[in-house]
Design a protein that fits this description.
This protein is α+β, with helices and mostly antiparallel strands and about 220 residues long. The chain is globular. About 25% of the residues are buried. The strands form three sheets. It has a six-stranded mixed β-sheet. It has three helices and 14 strands. It is about 20% helix and about 40% strand.
Length: about 220
């Protein structure tokens, strides 16, 4: 077997090995700039202390992997968005205590007089419809709409892979990819509120600080 044939065989074997390796790396989100916070507790800062934000779900929350001003994302096709608005407008009570030594307590989302997230099915005919998610500010003004396609919209909704997860479809098994809304950008632009993150990798806590944006 001459060198050219040996080299061709090597390249063929290498390419065949790269295909599953690429899929595995994609499933773990190696090629994206964001990561889902399934391995972290998600908290909010209240007077310098971190409080658990459940029922916000860490598996529906994401952030940039790197950077001094990491962006916060949340799945736009889930109900937790209402609680993020309540955190921004400080419509909650604090319940100190609990058995978690790394958190000062739990947030209690008091009943809000405002509905910040609305969902409506818009029918194109008697059988087919698209679900439209509408986000509103405290005055009831529409600040964003998203047609629920399960994908990004080239604006504030990004398609993010939940690392380590995959799902089956009629096209086979693929990485679990879902639509996440850029909370940091939306709140800063539409509500005048900064949502900044403090990441404690040692204790596995990501704390959100919600404050009025500084006027520049």
């Amino acid at each position: 077997m001459n060198k050219r044939i040996k080299w061709s065989v090597f390249l063929l074997v290498f390419a065949m090995l790269c295909i599953p390796a690429y899929f595995i790396m994609q499933t773990y989100g190696v090629f994206q700039k964001e990561k889902v916070l399934s391995g972290y507790a998600v908290a909010v800062d209240v007077e310098g202390k971190s409080y658990q934000t459940w029922p916000l779900i860490n598996g529906y929350t994401a952030m940039d992997k790197r950077g001094d001003d990491r962006q916060l994302y949340y799945r736009i096709d889930t109900s937790g968005l209402q609680y993020l608005f309540q955190l921004a407008y400080k419509e909650y009570e604090v319940q100190p205590g609990g058995d978690n030594p790394y958190l000062a307590g739990q947030i209690d989302y008091s009943q809000s007089d405002h509905v910040y997230v609305q969902s409506e099915n818009k029918y194109t005919n008697a059988n087919d419809f698209v679900t439209v998610i509408t986000l509103l500010d405290r005055e009831g003004k529409i600040i964003y709409t998203y047609e629920q396609t399960g994908k990004g919209d080239d604006k504030l909704v990004k398609s993010i892979i939940h690392q380590g997860m995959s799902r089956s479809s009629n096209r086979g098994t693929e990485a679990a990819r879902d639509p996440y809304l850029n909370i940091t950008a939306l709140f800063r632009e539409k509500l005048g509120i900064d949502a900044k993150l403090t990441v404690d990798d040692e204790h596995k806590v990501v704390t959100i600080r919600m404050n009025k944006a500084e006027v520049k």
